[in-house]
Input
Amino acid sequence: MNNPQKKVWLVIEKNTYGYSDNETFSVAKKAYSTEEAIGFKVALEKLNDRENQSYFIATDVETATNEVIKFHNKKVSDEAAF
Output
């Protein structure tokens, strides 16, 4: 079992469809050290063959969650306007 006191780094996959405001985010990998997170990110980037896909590292769960929620809420709001 993982120690809940350990800091978690998330490698986030970002996909952009059409316009830049049409984006999706998902957790590609979870790491417990910066070295591990960087290793995952580098490996995913090397395997990536899509122009619309990129990766970034979130320093903690709260930061990543807040960004995902913000973009999700914007997308829902934009769709409701139609």
